[in-house]
Amino acid sequence: MQNIQKTYTKAYWFFLGDAGVRILGFITTVLLARTLGASEYGLLTIAVAILGFSSWFSDLGLNTLGTRILAQPPEKRSYRSFEIFRIRIILGIVVLFSVSTVIWGTHFESPYTGLIIQLFLLSLIPQAIALEWYFNGTRNYSWITLSRLAQSAAYLLMIFFFIEDSGLMMVPVYYLIAAMIATSILFAVMPVRDKLKGDWPTYPKVREMIISALPLGLGSLFSQVVIFMPPLVIGYYFGFREAGWFGVAFKIILLFILVDRFLIRLLLPDMAILWRDNRTKLKKNLQISLHWLLFSGSFFAIILHTGSEFFINVLFGNEFAESALLLTILTLYLPLVFLNSIFSYGLLTSGHDTAYLRSGLTGGIASFFIILLIASVGSLTWVTWAVVIAEAIVVLSFYLEFRRLADLEIFTPMIKLPGLAGLLLLLPVFGLITYPLSFLLIPLLYILLVFLTGGLRMNDLIWIKMKLFKERS
User: Fold this and answer.
1) Over the stretch 44-94, which tens digit does the pLDDT of each residue have?
2) Do 197 and 216 reside in the same domain of the chain?
3) How far apart are CA 353 and CA 358, in angstroms?
């Protein structure tokens, strides 16, 4: 029971960090989009996407490797903390200069565009020296949460007070300052900074560590394809304004995904133990969790789908009106992401890293080519559909690996939960219900019909009540 309580404490620290960062980040997005307009916000979205991919290449899985090594007893650690720390610095500097050379060689559309991207790339340095891997490995999650919240709050405050006068040019500078604040906090509270002192690693050592870390990081890279690639191809094929329209719609989706992150940690905190000790109970918990995740993803998809014009207009204004249609399409992304959490989290907690990597590679490569192909021949709407299709392929690739471990029933829940949501969303299409009644009534109808059709049962309610209250008492 004590271990379960500790796991729940971790779940709530993760949720506090994720929720706080995403909510503060979303507020910042609203301020930026409304102040800068669609075109400049689109450029900002593209710059952040380039930074996202560059951040992976400056890490190559060392963050995950460092966390795993520090979670082991000192006598079993194959690498030392200062070696991981210094190799991350080396990679950060190399990637910064490499990507900067490419940016200044192409300029995308203008020197101004290149300068904005270059300024964002400077954040690779505080990211390279960040110590989250150390605090994760030593299970000191509270300081990670506080540093992330401090970074998001600092960025938001600088945008709120200065964006009207400074414009887009200073946004990456504010981003850099906020990243430095987060890094400084972890350095200030690190219990033993002497652990980071030591000789610079030799080339054979660097090569050995990168080879060890790379398989851990590749899954992360390809999981980010669906997030970071669309703004790049949209900006290239259509323009910055269109990238801005897509960016604000996808930001709303990402905000709701934090519910999925919290639910998976709350519903299955003891999955790793059950894989080893009680597969029967594990399968039952997985099946019920799958029902709740599909229900949650579908429910939020209904709310966003029926209220897309309202949310876009209220949050971002008329300049982003085109984003409403994109948001209605992207709502299909939510139940897919919620469903995939079961499969990806299951592979990781069961120790099947190779299967997780294989799934990520298959889904990520397929997503890359699907998004690129459709962007080259289609429209902005087509690209948005491509993102949903790409995520469906990612889900399929993870499911095919996961079903070798646990054969869950997914087709009946898919029909009763997302399928039912899809049928209800056809009511406005055929004029059977109009806005705002659809926004108010369809979510309520969905909850009622889910229980009437057996998509969720009373036992499911009792189970989640136990998860929410009894196991934490």
Assistant:
1) 999 999 999 898 888 888 777 777 777 666 666 666 777 778 888 888 899
2) yes
3) 8
Q: Cα separation of 473 and 175, whole Å?
A: 40
Domain that holds residue 281: 226-473
What is the pLDDT, as a whole number, of residue 358?
A: 86
Q: Which of 58-72, 287-301, 391-405, 446-460 has the weakest average pLDDT? A: 58-72
Instruction: Look up the pTM and report it.
Output: 0.87
Token readout for 27 is: 């507020």
Alpha-carbon distance 448 to 206, whole Å? 58
**C-alpha neighbours within 13 Å on the C-beta side of residue 209:** 30
CB atoms under 10 Å from CB of 378, counted, come to 15
Q: How many domains does the chain have?
A: 2
Query: Please, which residues have CB within 8 angstroms of residue 27's CB and are 6 or more apart in sequence?
Result: 156
Q: Give per-residue pLDDT as tens, 168-186.
A: 999 999 999 999 999 998 8
- With tokens 């030593």, the residue in question is 138
CA dihedral 211, 217, 223, 224 (to 10 degrees): -110
Residues 190 and 273 in one domain: no
Specify whether 175 is located in the same domain as 98: yes
d(CA 270, CA 288): 15
Say whether both 147 and 273 belong to one domain.
no
- Spatial separation of the C-alpha atoms in residues 186 and 141, rounded to whole Å: 11
Q: Is 407 in the same domain as 468?
A: yes
Residue 463 scores a pLDDT above 70: yes
